Amino acid sequence: MSVYRSAPYRIDLPKEALARAFHATPEHPVLDLHGGVAPGRPAWVIRIRAGRRVITPMVWGFPPPPGREQLVTSARNLDSTFWRPWLKRANRCLIPFTSFSAPAGPSGGLRPANGRAAAFAGLWRSFEEVLFFARLTSPDDGTGWAATMPVVLTEENEFVDWLEAAPDVAARMQRPPAPEKLVALANTG
């Protein structure tokens, strides 16, 4: 069995390494989250708080809209009334990963080609005193990636743009990663 059947992405770095890679400060220094991440489970997320990047635990998946029961793990249609309020700078985040399962991708998963930690572009919100996040997915643009491919950020300038740009600029970052940004992992299952 592939690790990704139960954990669609992995973060195989301790928070200290994440802090260095993303120039962020852990908000909960005692808590340690790493390994496989699945919907409904907590994971490290990087957001801006009081003008600086912080690493904080959040639950993967937004509370569902009325009439639905499952957490919403991916944001695709940023023009929808469900996602539009969360595209503000204050609600954008980086979701660090070291590898992930790709729809219609290699069965062993993908990792950043540069060998460093990378991040999905994400949105976050608070609901009943719990912090939740969803990762941004890209439309199908004919590059061979499926329409549910996460938006992958691998460079510091991309992290800055996603976290700090105006909402219309951030929305234009919603595109599949260039194929050279990712490499396939060997199938482990």
From TrEMBL:
InterPro entries attached to this UniProt entry: SRAP, SRAP-like
Domain of life (superkingdom): Bacteria
Gene3D superfamilies: SOS response associated peptidase-like
Protein name per Swiss-Prot or TrEMBL: SOS response-associated peptidase family protein
